[in-house]
Write a structure and sequence with these properties.
Blueprint lengths: L4 H8 L2 H18 L12 E6 L8 E6 L5 E6 L12 H4 L2 H5 L8 E3 L9 E3 L2 H19 L4 E5 L4 H11 L4 E2 L1 H18 L16 E5 L9 H12 L3 E5 L5 H4 L3 E3 L6 H14 L5 H7 E2 L1 H7 L5 H8 L3 H14 L3 E3 L11 H14 L48 H6 L13 E5 L3 H4 L3 H9 L3 E6 L11 E4 L11 E3 L5 E3 L14 H11 L11 H11 L4 H7 L1 E3 L24 E2 L3 H5 L19 E6 L13 H4 L6 E4 L1 H6 L7 E6 L9 E5 L7 E5 L19 H4 L4 E2 L6 E2 L4 E5 L10
Helix pairs in contact: 1-2, 1-8, 5-19, 6-19, 7-15, 10-13, 10-14, 10-15, 13-14
The chain binds ligand MGD and iron/sulfur cluster (SF4).
Length: about 750
């Protein structure tokens, strides 16, 4: 039976509890605010924001009551990211503001014992003075380039500006080498451009959507879910390739329960079938691509029969699904995914995905990928940044040459002294990223931290990473601060404002203020020649024909960028930003750097006897580890479970809801036990769990000790030689029913 759009939203929005939560919110929104007008007689107020619970950045209105207390957050109807509706996490974002476990004052370490959260409270002046003193000392003794910034989230711009003014350009985000980096490099090598953070997938108009390890519905990217629901309603064919029967798989015409770690074999055999059967867009391939003949010769041995032996997907199913894609083309999307750092050959897997899309002519076509449009906002004037003489790349001569952003793992590795390097990193500034849970191989991360002279962490919560800091700076939540203007690339160009809905609680401060004050203490005033962020925003908005006053009224503004076209026009000539100016089926930029210009299949290690591949993913009500203590969201899900196939459960005599410890191939045992969920929805060779749980910090009253941490069990990393991404799915676990003496790395 065809699932309806409503059903899909309901299932992906967490079953009964959350479905009712979302519908209450939607009704309230429809009743009062879809007119986009404020009731001037009411003492209640609404202010504009964009959500920070994940990085889809949905624009929203925040409602405060007569006492000025934040009541609710509702999607902005003019926003293409949210279309007036937030996901359960966005609605529950208010919990970040109310969380009584928040960081409340600046903190300074009092013992040498790292990781233990042993601090004394400090004033802002004291904390910033200490940071300025240490950073100046490091610049003098080692050079400013020996300081690195790790950042994820909106405040990053302010910290990046400070670091560049100081003289370092070593700025990395885990959203690159631990997440989408390989697909960006694959896309640049094929189409000459990145996909970017809102993927320009034209899902709402597609006739066929192929998901390879993308669990849309559990991975809750708002606009994308809404579009997938529209596609389901319009009878689009959904093909899901996943070893797990995901929510998306349950709404698919085809579920291909692939043997984990073999996806490239399936992709290559699809390419084989499309080319050998002539099921590709000949005109498009002729006009826009290069390298077809090399590709054709390359895939001849990759038959469906060959792929069957590797993937366990039957040849007939491979052929039939290839035919479905061709029938729908060019309105077909082989989805590039988001978190794609799995097995270390990820860039090549994503190259196969890019090639499939190119053969089917979906890039720049309705129902495939559109060309997004964005407004550019000028930066506030400042003196030229000093030119750094060293970068993180110097630590890896000749390696990861196609990486187009700094690698968080690279900076971490380059912090551990090595005889072959003249300078390792001496200080880290860590803003909005819980590196202990985020970088694989916790032992390595701790080793790097042990080698630091100084570390500052800017966070809203006492997370694992704050325990290792010398100074902790408490940031106020996104609901209590201004941030940079959100500029987004979408079908329509929009800008959105984030302004404070309430004053910062406790003694917390916004990132822009901290960076400016620290800049002052470090003698960098010339880079911060404004009174406050309102002056900067006003200046920037004036440059694009708006103002702070207008944006406070509108929240989201649709910009006029003249005439723009979302798709290629009939017969249009187009030059792509590649070496050849064409879409490169044969990637010359890869060849130039000594990498395979065409993707190949290479086998990966299999689980040893009695072990199962550790697979992990997202839940619709949580984002990584940042929401694990959120009072509203823990009400919906307060721990993770390990999914186990019934056959495996029988071998180990496991029962549903029993708690077990997981032990990995290197003998690392999870710090906490995790609940067993016995289900046919996972293959017998794998187990599955949601990332972000298993915190070990008694300052997190709801998250401490709840569930297990996948991060702890990922001690083996499969590095992508092309761009340095950290493949994390080559780890295997087994079960323990006894409590280990010294379990865990946390
Ligand atoms: P979180 O673990 O949520 O994600 O990695 P991170 O961005 O590090 O940590 C976010 C931190 O930001 C928390 O400490 C939170 O309290 C803090 N924070 C939240 N809001 C604010 C704010 O407004 N200001 C400041 N200053 N801090 C704030 C995500 C990364 O992890 C990504 S993008 C992916 S795709 C990978 N996923 C992943 C996985 O699935 N499994 C494993 N094992 N590792 C992974 N690593 C990667
Ligand atoms: Fe917030 Fe959800 Fe939008 Fe992410 S998808 S920005 S959590 S509302």
């Amino acid at each position: 039976m065809k699932p309806s759009r409503r059903e899909f939203i309901k299932i992906s929005a967490l079953g009964v509890g959350a479905a009712s939560l979302s519908s209450v919110v939607v009704k309230a929104a429809e009743k009062t605010f879809f007119s986009n007008e404020e009731d001037n007689n009411s003492k209640e107020k609404r202010t504009s924001t964009y959500c920070e619970v994940c990085f889809w950045k949905c624009a929203a209105w925040v409602h405060t009551n007569e006492q000025g207390e934040i009541q609710k957050v509702i999607g902005h109807p003019d926003d293409p990211h949210s279309n007036g509706r937030l996901c359960p996490r966005g609605t529950g974002g208010v919990g970040m503001y109310h969380d009584e476990d928040r960081l409340k004052t600046p903190l300074i370490r009092v013992t040498d014992e790292k990781g233990k959260q042993t601090f004394r409270e400090a004033t802002w002046d004291e904390a910033l003075d200490l940071i300025a003193k240490n950073l100046k000392k490091i610049a003098k003794e080692h050079g400013p380039e020996c300081v690195a910034l790790f950042t994820h989230g909106s405040g990053g711009k302010f910290w990046s500006h400070l670091l560049k003014a100081y003289g370092s350009n070593n700025i990395s985000a885990p959203s690159y080498a631990q997440c989408r980096g390989p697909r960006e490099v694959a896309w640049i090598g094929t189409f000459g451009e990145e996909l970017g953070a809102i993927e320009p997938t034209d899902i709402r108009n597609t006739k066929c959507l192929v998901l390879i390890g993308s669990h849309i519905g559990e991975n809750m990217h708002n606009g994308q879910i809404q579009e997938m629901s529209d596609a389901i309603d319009s009878d689009a064919t959904i093909i899901t390739v996943d070893p797990r029967f995901s929510t998306a798989a349950s709404h698919s015409k085809y579920w291909l329960p692939i043997k984990p770690a073999t996806d490239i074999a399936l992709l290559l055999s699809w390419i084989h079938v499309l080319i050998n059967e002539g099921w590709y867009d000949k005109e498009y391939v002729e006009k826009y691509t290069m390298g077809f003949e090399q590709l054709k010769a390359h895939v001849q041995t990759y038959t469906p029969e060959w792929a069957y032996g590797i993937t366990t997907i039957e040849p007939e199913v491979i052929r039939r699904t290839a035919r479905e894609m061709f029938n729908a083309s060019p309105a077909v999307i082989i989805h590039p995914g988001r978190h794609v750092t799995w097995y270390g050959d990820d860039t090549q897997r994503l190259r196969s995905v890019a090639i499939l899309n190119a053969l089917l002519g979906s890039w720049g076509r309705r129902g495939g990928f559109y060309f997004g449009i964005e407004t550019s906002i000028p930066g506030f004037p400042h003196p030229e940044y000093p030119k750094p003489t060293k970068t993180w790349r110097d630590a890896f001569p000749g390696q990861y040459t196609l990486a187009d952003s700094a690698l968080a793992n690279g900076v971490c590795d380059a912090t551990i002294p090595s005889a072959s390097r003249d300078c390792s990193f001496k200080a880290w500034i860590v803003n909005g990223t819980n590196l202990i849970f985020t970088l694989p191989n916790i032992i390595n991360t701790k080793k790097a931290i042990d080698n630091l002279e100084f570390m500052v962490v800017i966070d809203t919560m006492p997370m694992e990473i704050t325990g290792y800091a010398d100074v902790v700076l408490p940031e106020c939540t996104y609901l209590e601060r201004y941030d940079e203007i959100r500029v987004s690339k979408h079908r329509i160009p929009t800008i959105a404002l984030r302004e404070p809905a309430a004053p910062p609680k406790y003694d917390s401060k916004p990132g822009w203020w901290m960076a400016k004050e620290l800049g002052h203490k470090m003698g960098l005033d010339a880079f911060f020649e404004y009174k406050d962020i309102e002056e900067v925003l006003e200046w920037q908005l004036n440059k694009v024909g708006s103002s702070l006053q207008e944006m406070k009224r509108l929240g989201v503004k649709v910009m006029d960028e003249g005439e723009y076209l979302l798709y290629l026009q009939e017969g249009e000539e187009m030059e792509f930003n590649t070496n050849s100016g064409k879409i490169e089926l044969f990637a010359t930029s890869f060849l130039d750097e000594g990498f395979d210009p065409l993707p190949k299949y290479t086998p990966h290690p299999e689980p040893p006897e009695g072990f199962y591949r550790l697979n992990y993913g997202r839940a619709p009500m949580h984002t990584f580890s940042r929401t694990a203590n959120n009072p509203n969201l823990t009400d919906l899900m307060d721990e993770n479970a390990v999914w186990v196939n019934p056959k495996v459960a029988k071998i180990w005599s496991l029962s549903n809801n029993q708690y077990v410890w997981l032990e990995n191939q290197d003998g690392v045992v999870s710090s906490f036990p995790v609940k067993v969920r016995i289900t046919e929805r996972i293959r017998w060779d794998s187990v599955y769990m949601v990332h972000g749980f298993g915190h070990k910090n008694d300052k997190l009253s709801r998250a401490n000790g709840r569930g297990a941490s996948d991060s702890e069990l990922i001690t083996k990393v499969m590095l992508d030689p092309i761009m340095g991404g950290t493949g994390m799915r080559g780890n295997f676990v087994t079960f323990r029913t006894d409590k280990p003496e010294n379990g865990g790395l946390l």
